[in-house]
From TrEMBL:
Belongs to the Nudix hydrolase family. DCP2 subfamily. Residues 94-225 form the Nudix hydrolase domain. Signal peptide: none annotated. The keyword Cell division does not apply. This is m7GpppN-mRNA hydrolase.
Length: 235
C-alpha cells in the first residue's frame, strides 16, 4: 500500500489527460506506459502542486506506484513487479534520447507546434525517440516528416539546436528557419497528431505561471508544458 496520498480528483484528472485515451499498444507496453505516467507526474508537480502546496511532493517512483495501485487495470500482466518495470524503464530512458525540430518562419516570429490525440489539449514540438543506429539529424527529419508532412532533411544544420535533459532523458531540437507560413502541413502517421499550427512566439509562455497565452489565445500555460523548457532559446 502506497503511503503517498493525492486527491482522487487530481489523480482522475491526470489519468484522463495522459493515460485513459492512449492507444491499446501503448497501454500494453509497460515501458511506453511509464513514459505517459512520467508526463502525468511532471504535469502534477509543475501545475497542480505549484498551485496548491498542500498537495504532497513526490518522486516518479512513488507517483507511479500510486497510479498503478489506484488504476490496477493498467498493469500488464496484473501481477507484474512494478519496481522491476520502473527500473527497466529508467534504463531504457537513459539510453534512448529524442530528437526533433523547432520550425520557424523567416521573421523568427512564428513557431510550429503539434498537438497529439492522446495528451489532452497539450502542444509541443515535433519530435520522437531515436531508432537503433540512427543519426540524430536523420531521426529529427524522420519525426518531423511523420508528424507534420514537412521535409527538413536539406534544412537541418547539425550544430544549430537547443538541448535539454528532461527528467533524465535527452531532448534535442534542431532549429529550422525560413519555413513558409503558407505551407500545407499534414501528418503522415494516422492517429498520433490531431493539429499542426503556427503560434506567435510572443504568445507562448516563458514559464508555467505566465498568463500570456491565456490572455492572447485563451489557452492555459499548462497546455504548453512541453514547450516551456525551450522558450529561453526562442526569445
Amino acid at each position: 500500500m502506497s503511503k503517498l496520498k493525492i486527491s482522487p480528483n487530481v489523480l482522475d484528472d491526470l489519468c484522463s489527460r495522459f493515460l485513459l485515451n492512449i492507444p491499446s499498444q501503448e497501454k500494453e507496453d509497460m515501458i511506453r506506459l511509464c513514459f505517459q505516467i512520467e508526463l502525468a507526474h511532471w504535469f502534477y508537480l509543475d501545475f497542480f502542486r505549484a498551485e496548491n502546496n498542500r498537495l504532497p511532493d513526490c518522486r516518479m517512483k512513488e507517483f507511479a506506484k500510486l497510479v498503478f495501485e489506484t488504476y490496477p487495470f493498467l498493469l500488464n500482466p496484473s501481477d507484474v513487479n512494478v519496481d522491476k518495470v520502473l527500473e527497466s524503464w529508467k534504463e531504457y530512458k537513459r539510453s534512448v534520447p529524442t530528437y526533433g525540430a523547432i520550425l520557424m518562419d523567416s521573421t523568427l516570429e512564428y513557431v510550429l507546434l503539434v498537438q497529439g490525440f492522446w495528451i489532452k489539449a497539450s502542444w509541443g514540438f515535433p519530435k520522437g525517440k531515436v531508432n537503433k543506429d540512427e543519426q540524430p539529424e536523420i531521426c529529427a527529419a524522420r519525426e518531423v516528416l511523420e508528424e507534420t508532412g514537412y521535409d527538413i532533411t536539406k534544412s537541418i544544420k547539425p550544430n544549430q539546436y537547443a538541448e535539454h535533459l528532461l527528467n533524465e532523458q535527452l531532448s534535442r531540437l534542431y532549429f529550422v528557419r525560413d519555413v513558409p507560413l503558407d505551407t500545407k502541413f499534414g501528418p503522415k502517421t494516422r492517429g498520433e497528431i490531431k493539429n499542426v499550427q503556427w503560434f506567435s512566439v510572443s504568445d507562448l509562455p516563458a514559464h508555467k505561471k505566465d498568463q500570456t497565452p491565456k490572455q492572447n489565445l485563451n489557452i492555459a500555460a499548462n497546455c504548453f508544458f512541453m514547450v516551456i523548457p525551450f522558450m529561453k532559446q526562442l526569445r
